[in-house]
Amino acid sequence: MEINVTEQRLHAHALLDILPAEKVDAVLSLLEEMVPEAGTSLAERLALAGVEDEQITPEMAARLDRALASVKRDDTVPHEEILREFGLDR
After folding, report:
1. Cβ atoms of 58 and 51 closer than 8 Å
2. Which strand (E) or helix (H) includes residue 24?
3. What b/e sequence results for 21-43 when a residue is b if at least 16 CB atoms lie within 10 Å of its CB, and e otherwise?
4. Closest of 5, 14, 28, 35 to residue 74, by C-alpha
5. Contact 7, 27 (CB under 8 A)
């Protein structure tokens, strides 16, 4: 049986989405150790992942880096609150 990496990545993303907040930092630290490029900026990581330069403007890269920094500071809005804000609460 052939491993479908895309499905594995989607599964990993789904697990991250439901991971309790107190465990996110541990997983992030582990991933940063496993991915040598993790210390680089988000724009650099996207380039390494094969995202075309013209797809990410310098402004977008800066916004993504700010978003990542806010996640690292745990300065985020819970998913449930966003859903409520848009009238999509479960």
Report:
1. no
2. helix 21-34
3. eeeeeeeeeeeeeeeeeeeeebb
4. 28
5. no
21-75 confidence digits (pLDDT tens): 888 888 888 887 777 665 667 667 767 777 665 667 778 878 888 888 888 888 8
Question: Which phi and psi (to 5°) does residue 68 adopt?
Answer: -60, -40
* Cβ-proximal residues to 53 (8 Å cutoff; 6+ apart), any chain: 47
Query: What's the predicted TM-score (pTM) here?
Result: 0.39
- Residues across the chain: 90
Lookup: tokens for 77: 């809005």
